[in-house]
Each structure stands twice: as structure tokens, then as C-alpha cells.
Amino acid sequence: MSLRLVTPPTEMPVTLEQAKAHLRVDFEDEDATITALIAAATRAVENRVQRRYCTQTIEWVIQNFPMCGLRLPLAPVAAVDSVTFTNADGSVSTLEESAYLITSQGEAAVIYPALGSIWPLAWPGPKPVAVTFTVGGAANAVEAHVRAAILLMVGHLYQNREATGGDLKEVPLGVADLMLAEAWS
């Protein structure tokens, strides 16, 4: 299984101004570094809870269609854009939208073959089965505890950006606690 970012988010849950206020930085020299740290901290929090907070498009490649449904690995799913598979001759086909059903399980989405049909046979190749989907939402809809976790992570990364070898420090407990709260919400 592999996930690939097709279209990145155009905004982050935490703005540069919010991060600079949190870090108590009032100069512009560090803007590029802080912007990169916001992206890294956001991705760390997202990966921990298998979510994406801001709208983006993802391609998920798997080896074959499972006997049961395809449970998409990230939430919240806004749309399934396409489901493709490799044919025996090496060509790639796109499943018609009428060939599958999408159901919700909380914020997760599961794709099933349409009633009375089965998945097609996918042949080995670079992308035997690929699902492209849109995940996430508006940056201003991200909950306060998630923004707090991202800001704490930005602070940790900013303060420890030169850490090497024996100087490495664990992520602050508060970040882990806030991410755990997100996983249970």
C-alpha cells in the first residue's frame, strides 16, 4: 500500500502569524523556516491520527481489490474521484461510478462493488489498483485542540531544530495527549 499526495492543501490549520505569536517571534527572517515547520508539524499530527485537516487529493495504490470493501486509509473523505485498475494486457481502466458504492463509517469511507457485481481482476504492475480521493476540509474548521497540538509541535521543532545524536528530545507529552484526544473524537 502506498499513499501519494496528488494535490496539496492550499492552506494549513495554523497560519504563519499564529505560529509566530506562539513562538514569540516578531521578525521575518525565520518565516520560511516556520512555514516549513507548520507543514511538518501538521503532517506529523495528521499521520498520527490518520486524518487530513485541509482539503487535498490523495492517490492510494494497493495490490488488488479485497474480498470485502476498500476502507480508505484517511478521513474525512469528501469525495472518491476515481478507481482504476490494471488489466491483463497492462492497460489501465477506470471503474464507472455505477460499478461501486461508497458508504460512510463515521468519517471513514468504504468502497464496495455495486449490488450484484464483483470487483474486476487487477493484474500486477506499478499500480494494480489506484483510488484517488479528496480528503480534508476547510482550515478554519479545524478544532482548537488540533491547532494546539500543531502549535506545540511547531514550538518543539523550532526549539530543537539543531538536535542531533544524543541531543534528540521526545515530542512533548502535551502534543501526544492532544493527538490522542483527536483519535478518540
Account of the 3D structure:
The protein has 185 residues and is α+β, with helices and mostly antiparallel strands. The chain has 2 domains: 9-53 and 139-184, Phage gp6-like head-tail connector protein (Hypothetical protein yqbg), CATH 1.10.3230.30; 56-135, no CATH class. Helix content is 30%, strand content 25%. The protein contains 4 helices and 8 strands; from the N terminus they run E-H-H-E-E-E-E-E-E-E-H-H. It has helices spanning 16-23, 31-49, 144-159, 173-184; strands at residues 2-7, 56-62, 70-71, 77-86, 92-94, 100-105, 108-113, 129-135. The strands form 2 sheets. The chain has a 5-stranded antiparallel beta sheet, with no helix packed on it. Strand 4 and strand 5 (92-94) form a beta hairpin. The longest helix is centred in the N-terminal third of the chain and has 19 residues, at 31-49. The radius of gyration is 20 Å and the shape is elongated. The two termini are 26 Å apart. The model has no long low-confidence stretch (mean pLDDT 88).
